[in-house]
Amino acid sequence: MKYxxxxxxxxxxxxxxxxxxxxxxxxxxxxxxxxxxxxxxxLIKHGSKMLKEFQYDKAFAExxxxxxxxxxxIEARLFYxxxxxxxxxxxxxxxxxxxxxxxxxxxxxxxxxxxxVSLATTFSQQQDFDKSFQYINEALKINPRYRDAYVLKGxxxxxLNNIELAKSSYETAVQQDPKFFEAYVMLGSLYExxxxxxxxxxxxxxxxxxxxxxxxxxxxxxxxxxxxKLNEAKSIYRKMIALDxxxxxxxxxxxxxxxxxxxxxxxxxxxxxxxxxxxxxxxxVEAWHNLGICYLDKGDKANAMLSFRKAISFNPNFTLSKExxxxxx
Length: 329
Description:
Blueprint: H1 29-35, H2 40-52, H3 56-69, H4 74-86, H5 92-108, H6 113-125, H7 129-142, H8 147-159, H9 163-176, H10 181-193, H11 199-209, H12 214-226, H13 230-243, H14 248-261, H15 267-280, H16 285-297, H17 301-314, H18 319-328
C-alpha cells in the first residue's frame, strides 16, 4: 500500500519526559548533559527543547540515544517516535516506524494521551483521516479537555477543506488553553482568508501572549494593513525592526505603504525602506521592482532599469519587471 505524506501545518505536537533528572530545574541543560550524558530524562528534556527550536538533527540524535539506552522506557520511545514523525525531511518509512512505536506505547499504556494523539497524527500524515479521528476521539473520551486533540482535529478539517469545523476545533483548543497563542494565529489566518475583520482580534490576542514574537507581530501588522489601519500597521512594523533589524518583510511593507497606500505618496521614504530591505535581503525581488517604479515616478529611467534588471537577475520569470524593461527600452 502506498502512503502519501502530508504536512501537518503550524502545530508540532511534542512530547516531553515527566521523569526527574539530576538538577532538572537548572536552565543550563547543555552543562547537565556533559555531567550526565546517559540521563534519559535529560536527553528527552534537552531534545524537546531542540525540537521546539526546530533543531531537528540534534533532537533526533538525542531521541535515538535515549531510546537506545532503554527501549522499555515509554517516555524515551515516545519522544523518539515524535521526532521521527515531526522532522520536515521525514520519509514514509519514518512515519511507519513512528506509528509502530506509538502502538507499542498504547498497548502498554492505553490511556497515554500524548501517544494516542501522536498516533492519530501519523494517520493524518498518511491521509487516513478516519483512522486519525478514531484515535483523537479515543483521547477525548479519556480527557475531553485535552488541547492537542482539538488542535489535530482542526488540522484534519483544514486538509478536508471543512473550514467551519476547523475554526470550531481551534476555538475549542483555546478554550482549553487560553494561552495557546498558535491557535489564535491560525484562527486569525482563517478569518483573514475570508476577509473577516475579526481576524484582528485573534492576532492581537496572539501578539499580547507573544509580544516579542516577530512572526506573530507581522501577521497582526499585515492584517492591519489589509484593513487600512495604516498607523497601527506602521507602528507594529517599527516594533518588529526594533526587535529584529533583519526582518526584511517589515521593511518592505513600510515602503509599500509609503509608495501605494497613504494618501500622500512619499517616494523618498518608500525608497529608503526598499533599500533597507535589499541591504538585509538582496534577493528580495519585489523590493527591487518597487524601487524601480519609484525611480520611474521620479523621472530617473536609468536607475529604474537597473532596479528592474536586478529583480529579474534573481528571478528571471518575474514578468512585471520584464514588461517594464521592454516598455521603457
